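Margin note: ligand = S-adenosylmethionine.
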Amino acid sequence: MNFKLVKIGQDLALESSLFKKPFQIQFAGNRNYWKPLPKKQNEPLFKAIGFKGQPLNILDGTAGLLEDSFQMARLGVRITALERHLILFQLLQDGIRRSIQDKESSDVLKQIRLIHAETEAWLKNEKDIFDVIYLDPMFLLDEVKALPKKENQVLRLLNESEKSQWISLDFLNLALKKCKHRVVIKRSIHTGQIRNEIADWPLPDQVLKLRSVQFEIYFP
Ligand SMILES: C[S@@+](CC[C@H](N)C(=O)[O-])C[C@H]1O[C@@H](n2cnc3c(N)ncnc32)[C@H](O)[C@@H]1O
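Resulting structure:
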């Protein structure tokens, strides 16, 4: 595999021949986390999770780089974010540790409980029922040949060895049992079409379509 986790002083970074500079997770001042949110009510992600100003307890079962979790946490809602990849989890933990120097970021991150776990297995033993369960599985690996953002390259690089980039029907049914209001699955438009062709997959109750991705919403 074409990457390794390295220490730079006290900090962790991912080194790969794919990047010029080692990759670190940086929350403070990073537009991927701090994109402007002029009209919260129009943000598709917030519409998808059904946010209307109320407190929410959300499970993000595919933390990744925590970008979606961070946007949701900016609303003041509580997030439990699960990431199964140990290196990614360690990079996130390190980014969270360094964010203490930035009050704005650390205030948002205080809303997020990050856990290293595989979500389906973890959910089976979890007593809590969440308001919303949010899942953003990786694009099918042969679907996107060239991903422009370095962040996407990192996700792809780390996940290449993972067997399953798909959510099984059992996983969806479990998520529906463990939430009060909705399960939201973010997919590329293309993967959404593949889902339609899998006979036993239920059609979503609602779909919020954007240019390249869609949010598929299932009510329990
Ligand atoms: C497309 S990324 C998610 C990106 C994320 N929404 C963000 O905003 O940064 C998918 C991530 O979910 C993780 N993942 C996929 N299936 C998982 C599972 N069953 N349990 C835990 N993590 C999972 C992968 O390791 C990968 O890091």
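The helical segments are 44-48, 67-73, 86-98, 103-109, 119-124, 150-159, 169-177, 189-197.
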